[in-house]
Batch of 2 targets.
Target 1
Amino acid sequence: MKKLLYALTTVVIMIGLVGLSPSLVMDTATAQGISPGPKVAMGTPMVKMDKKAQAVIMGAGFQPGQEVSVLFTDVDGVQADIGHALKPTPKANKVGAWVTTWSCGRYVAKKLIKAGAYTITVTDSDYNVIDTTPVSFYQAKAKKEKKK
C-alpha cells in the first residue's frame, strides 16, 4: 500500500513539474525566437550633469515607420514630452529600430535634473506606454587646482 501511495505521489509531482516547466524556463515566444515586443535602451545610461549634457536613447522591435514619443519624469514626478529636445525625431527604420540624442543640458541648467536615477518612457502617438528604461545622472567632480 505504501509503495502504491509513493508511486502515485511521484507521478502527480512529475506531471506537475512537466506541466509547469515551460513557464518556469521561458515562455513560448522566447523559445521560438520571437521578440516579445518593442524594447527601449539608453545608449548613454550614465549622463554627466553639465549644460552640454546629452543622452542617446534607442529602440528596437517597433513597426517600420512607427513614430514614438519620449517622456521624462523630473524630480517632482512631473512627466514631460521631451520630443522638442530630440534629434532626430525618433522614427523606426525599415527593420524597426531607431536612435535619437536628447540634449538634456537645459533640464540640468533649470535644476529639473539632480544626481540620481530617472525613468525614460517611450509611448505611441496616443501616449500608450510601450516601454521604459532607466537613466542615471551624476555630478561631475570639481577639478583640483595644481600647486606650483
Target 2
Amino acid sequence: MVFDYHRRSLNLIPFDRNGYSEMICNVIIFVPLGLLLSINFGQISVWRKLAFIFVFSLVIEIIQFVTAIGVADLTDVITNTGGGLIGLVLYAWSKTYVYDEKLDRYILYIISTLLIVFLLLRTFIFKVRY
C-alpha cells in the first residue's frame, strides 16, 4: 500500500531554479494587488504598501512550507514583491494622465473582467485535478 505524503521544501537561494515562466507569472499575478492597494489606500505611503505586499507574499510562502504544499521559495517572495511594485508604479504613472476616479473605475472593471475570464477558463478549459 502506498501512502500519500507531502514533503516540505524550502529554497533560500534566489533565482536558483530555471523556471523563468514561473517567475514571470508571479510578477504578473501580483501587479493587480499593487493596483488595488493604490486604489483603496491612496493616502498610505508607497513604502507601506510595498511592505504589505512583501509581508503578504512571505506569509503565503510560510503557509506553503508549514502545510507542505508546493515549494517555499525566496525567489517567489522577490518576484511577487516586484510585481506589486510594478502595480504601484503603474498606478502612480497613469494617475498623472487620467482623472483619479475614472482611472479607478477602469482598473476595477479590467481586474474584475480578467478574474471572471480566469475563473471560467480554470473551470471549463484548464481542469486541474488535485
